[in-house]
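During the second year of the project, the team shifted from modelling isolated chains to modelling whole assemblies. The rationale, set out in the original proposal, was that interfaces cannot be judged from single-chain predictions alone. As a representative example for this report, we include one of the complexes processed in the last quarter. Its constituent sequences, exactly as entered into the pipeline, are reproduced here:
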Amino acid sequence: MPIQKQLPVLDQECCAPLVRQPLGTGEAAELARVLKALADPVRLRLLSLIGAHEGGEACVCELTGVFDLTAPTISHHLKVLREAGLIDAERRGTWVYYWVVPVTLNRLAGLFVPDLAASSSR
Amino acid sequence: MPIQKQLPVLDQECCAPLVRQPLGTGEAAELARVLKALADPVRLRLLSLIGAHEGGEACVCELTGVFDLTAPTISHHLKVLREAGLIDAERRGTWVYYWVVPVTLNRLAGLFVPDLAASSSR
DNA sequence: ATACAGCTTAGATATCTGTCAAATTAGAGT
DNA sequence: ACTCTAATTTGACAGATATCTAAGCTGTAT
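Output from the structure prediction step:
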């Protein structure tokens, strides 16, 4: 009975969970909220810059220069990412530091990849 | 030299690629385009319904009833998903059938999970 | 042919969103 | 106290978006 054993394995490893089981209304609303925060070129790059930055965090002053945008605009995008739970921030003296919240990113990952149960940090 | 061997492994398996290396401007723009298509509760559910439907495809007539929206609105959302390359469609007689394009979904998956090189179908 | 059902397109509208300039807050260092 | 720098908030505005109604298109069946 090799077939019976093969199917369950495929069931776990194949295909994005998103397209394996219909998403509920509530789930969809919540996920859309987070995806919407991510679905912007500037915010994608901001998140990426913050996450990839040395120490896993970045000061706003290190982010503004990268873009051809004013400080208020960057601040706005950071706020959107923050309210979506994708990043968090803390003021330390003169500067404000931002870092990525792994849990929220992993929730999105769970849409595309099965079995990501307890992913590691960062 | 166990450390030298361990680091490269972590480098491959840990953390979303998105937050490991800064995203380029072009990449970010392209990804944002696809994410924006996905970042809507109705479209998330549509994609999920289509993908999870028997045979991997669904007729529009099977989708409209699920939502409290008019047919033109559903049609609009399907068009957005289609133009993002997330789904494709074909008319067969009276009905139009939609199915998920795995390649595009996998490109998104690659943001969150490393090493997803050649993922399987659907 | 005519009518009907499935689906899309076109046009209209209210809401949301990205951006900037100006004003505001918060801390550091004279 | 004052000033300078870092960052956010506010207000305004142009452009995008989600939704609807009405109209159009494309097959099937009578």
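The radius of gyration of chain A is 18 Å. The first strand of chain A starts at residue 57 and ends at 59.
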